[in-house]
Specification:
Distance between the termini: 59 Å
Largest sheet: 3 strands, antiparallel
Order of helices and strands: HHEEEHH
Strand content: 25-35%
Length: 148
């Protein structure tokens, strides 16, 4: 059974991982920001990050990470939420606005002008990181052992 929130999880993840100021800049380029009412104004706090030894072991508390969260509602009743790593109130506001607007008729415009650009930027960052890692790879099967 497919997750009904899969698309929303995807765009929330893109915005949470975006570079500082990128979501706000793309949103402002795409459209004028609509009026909204704060349900929870941006606030900075921390969350506990959990890890697993070897990826499969028992979970343990790794440490705390600073996050900024907020929630807002548009005049049509759509609610937008955001959790952004770091102390970035403006980014949290922009992400919550995009989340709320993705539930309106503006979704197609935002998908093309905001989310696709965020996805492309994320793909480029991953490719750059992979290329740096690949440059350090050692292939032991091609090394000469010195035996004849």
């Amino acid at each position: 059974m497919a997750d009904p929130n899969q698309d929303r999880k995807a765009w929330m993840g893109l915005m949470a991982k975006a570079q500082e100021g990128h979501v706000a800049a793309l949103l402002d380029t795409a459209m004028d920001r609509p009026d909204f009412t704060w349900l929870r104004p941006p606030e900075i706090g921390s969350v506990m990050v959990r890890g697993r030894a070897g990826g499969t072991g028992a979970p343990f508390n790794l440490g705390e990470v600073t996050v900024t969260r907020c929630a807002l509602t548009l005049s049509g009743g759509e609610v937008g939420h955001a959790y952004i790593q770091g102390r970035r109130k403006a980014d949290a506001e922009a992400a919550a606005l995009v989340d709320a607007l993705m539930q309106t008729d503006a979704a197609d415009c935002l998908r093309a002008k905001v989310l696709e650009h965020l996805s492309d930027a994320q793909t480029a960052r991953r490719q750059t990181r992979a290329a740096k890692a690949a440059a350090t790879k050692v292939d032991f099967f091609t090394m000469v052992r010195g035996e004849d």
